[in-house]
Write a structure and sequence with these properties.
about 140 residues, mainly alpha, about 55% helix, globular
Length: about 140
Amino acid sequence: MSAVAVSDAPARAVAAGGVVSLLRLEGAAVLAAAVAAYVFVGGSWLLFALLLLAPDLAMIAYRFGPVAGAAAYNAAHTYLAPAALGAAGLALGAAGLALGAPAMQALALIWVAHIGLDRALGYGLKHATGFGDTHLGRIGRRG
């Protein structure tokens, strides 16, 4: 009979091995596609440079603890909000209803590029146990 270690720590879903490599390659592909689309829509490179890291401002929420920090960080680092923003920009632009539609599309593409870059670098969605615990594995100092 073998002994099984039991931990009080909550289980965290973490990708491992080749799955992490695939997710990182997927992030790189998303980054490349977002940049290509940004070129296609003729977005400002100054705006791109200024806003590329803006989603990381969500890390400020970690001042209120790891649960609030993870929730804010994850909200800013999933494709849901930029997809909605981009779709709204496309719909409004197609209907001729909004002068800001191209700006909405550009912002959405910058946001998607940021998320793709993060994933390509191995930064995943955060678990509430701490900033370094991500769905792509542990980041930062080990120990």
